[in-house]
Design goal:
- It is built from 15 helices and two strands.
- The protein is mostly helical.
- The chain has one domain: ABC transporter involved in vitamin B12 uptake, BtuC (Orthogonal Bundle), CATH 1.10.3470.
- It has a two-stranded antiparallel sheet with strand order 1-2.
- β1 and β2 form a beta hairpin.
- The chain is globular and about 60 Å long.
- The N terminus is likely disordered.
């Protein structure tokens, strides 16, 4: 397996600063840590899955597994984009609002009689524009990402309630439903969509210079500027990619549910950040693993599905996910302090 999947940044084309030299010498250590996180997460998935299979006879049934896969589709797509942003050293807590606004635009476009081949680009474009807005705020006004995207979250949520007025948009066509509910040669189409998104993000991070720029900014923004990387443009494009993927998730949500609920996207930001961090992506930036993120998505959805099957209140899902996120961040903080002491 290539180093990227283990979280190491691709080699920079030039090393012109002490920061980049130090980052290069730490690649092997970071790769090992990410691989360890992935292995721990895989073992946790197997253990939790085994526990739920004993607790409920329905957990390992084909119907439940396929439904869990479909329910994980939107989270998996948004988490892929979140991985890019966090590797770059940013964060976006407004993805739920982006998904909601994109879904409303998609729903209203359907109600206006537009065909799917027109609705789809409109939904994707809406997400990309809103994501680029976040990138613009963080670069042009130097607003910290958490503050900029938190403000955007409230703006997007207000837009959602103003447009739909507290009522659902329902009765939407099922033209794109095969993307979620279909199968190709007995392989669920949801799995193929996830494979396509993660494969594309892997190519973006590993095979083109833009991916090296993302890693470079996350490792040291100052050093990235020294080697000639256009930091502002890279940030705006990366946030736009996350917005685009959120718009795609909205399109698939509408295809799966055929309606737009008033509480759409309320928890997806926390879940996407949790999946990304659980998978080994550093909240400080510069280190990330798409494979780990995907394992994080699987872990979260298995816990949520298992708790429902054994009759535990859905309120505990957020408690568990938030607790896991705090635990992982605490462990990373302790590890970082120990590393600083040994340097």
């Amino acid at each position: 397996m290539e180093p990227f999947l283990r979280g190491a940044a691709p080699a920079a084309p030039r090393l012109l600063s002490k920061d980049l030299v130090m980052a290069k010498t730490n690649d092997l250590r970071l790769t090992s840590l990410t691989a360890t996180r992935e292995m721990i997460l895989l073992c946790a998935i197997l253990l939790v899955g085994a526990a739920f299979s004993f607790a409920s006879p329905y957990f390992l049934t084909p119907i439940n597994l396929i439904q869990t896969l479909r329910a994980a589709l939107e989270l998996a797509i948004v988490s892929a984009g979140m991985t890019l942003v966090i590797i770059m050293g940013g964060i976006d807590v407004s993805v739920g609002g982006i998904l909601a606004v994109s879904a409303i635009v998609i729903g209203k476009s359907y109600q206006a009689g537009m065909p799917p081949w027109v609705v789809a680009p409109i939904g994707l474009g809406t997400g990309a524009i809103l994501g680029a807005w976040n990138g613009w705020l963080t670069t042009k006004f130097k607003v910290p990402p958490i503050i900029a995207t938190l403000g955007s979250m409230y703006i997007f949520s207000a837009i959602m309630f103003i447009v739909i007025g507290g009522a659902w948009i329902s009765g939407l066509p099922n033209t794109l439903s095969p993307l979620v509910n279909g199968a190709v040669f007995f392989i669920p189409s949801a799995a193929l969509v996830i494979l396509f998104v993660y494969g594309t993000c892997w190519i973006l991070l590993r095979r083109v210079p833009f991916g090296r720029h993302i890693y470079g900014i996350g490792s040291s923004e100052h050093s990235a500027k020294l080697v000639g990387i256009n930091v502002d443009r890279t940030k705006i494009i990366t946030y736009a990619i996350l917005g685009l993927l959120s718009g795609f998730a909205a399109l698939l949500y509408v295809a799966r549910m055929r309606n737009v609920e008033i509480n759409i996207g309320t928890s997806i930001a926390l879940e996407a950040i949790a999946a990304t961090i659980l998978g080994g992506t550093s909240i400080r930036g510069g280190v990330g693993s798409l494979l780990g993120t995907l394992l994080g998505v699987v872990f979260i959805r298995i816990i949520q599905n298992g708790l429902v099957l054994i009759g535990v209140s859905s309120l505990w899902e957020t408690v568990v996910i938030g607790g896991l996120l705090i635990l992982v961040l605490a462990v990373d903080a302790i590890r970082n302090r120990n590393n600083l002491r040994t340097q």
